[in-house]
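Here is one chain, start to finish.
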Amino acid sequence: MRAEPGDRLVVESPATGAARRDGEIIGVRHADGTPPYEVRWSDTDEVTLVYPGPDAHVRGPGGPPEGEAEAGRSRTDRGGERTSAEPRATPPARPAHPGDIGRRVSAERRRRGLTREETAHRAGMAPEYLAYLEEQAADPTAACLARLAGVLGTTPVALRGGGIDRPPGQGQALRHPRIRDLGPDECRRLLSASGVGRVAVSTPQGPAVVPVNYEVVDEAIAYRTAPDSVPAAAVGSEVAFEVDHLDEAMGQGWSVLVVGPARVVTDPGAVRRLAEGAHAAPWAGGEREMWVSIRPTRITGRRITEHGQ
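Its structure:
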């Protein structure tokens, strides 16, 4: 069996041979058009990853059932192989790496503490299809992306990266927002996930705030930088370090502020442990082997939620 995006997969009743279920093939996994296929079923609009059985066959987009095709039009034989007077183009190969949408879906899912099975169930799709979406350069339908966005508390535009050049915080504010202070334990919990924060330093050119990839080790904030960079100017002074998260779709968010002295980590063993335990390489790239540690003397935080939460 071979197919290409836009074809239809028809599953027949073994007893009558009549169409029992059909759907549009929106993606193929292999360059030669062999199964499995991403199928959007006509009766449910759900998308699943399908390995067709002997009761399934493929026909062209919008084409009539088998036996009614006009001369010269694409049709499918009983074994499921396409035949045509026109040479059939080979579908483009899909890269064996995640696409941008898949990476964003995976990141949002993990951030919310959801498994693939939980996410797929809530979005009305097969876990196998969600795995394929996260691991391959797939292009889900608008309906599929809308359901995923609803489950993940975001928007289809955000999952496609449409707002990547916009500053955060342009979403609608809550009608009845509530701001509450966070205790030290909750602040430490939010910080402990590691990620990207902002360090505020004084430089010869004046105050500066720059983002850095950070780690939390023994309650201290640690980040890598280069000796001649702006983040390196923090060494030897008291600095401020801030981390936050905004939920654009829900109009909620939190921020944590750490104040404390910054120093260079010089012990070779400590440097090695930091490098080996780092969750991510610095996004800025380049040679950044200098580790700076901020030991908190004051931790404060705030959270915005809907009134009553």
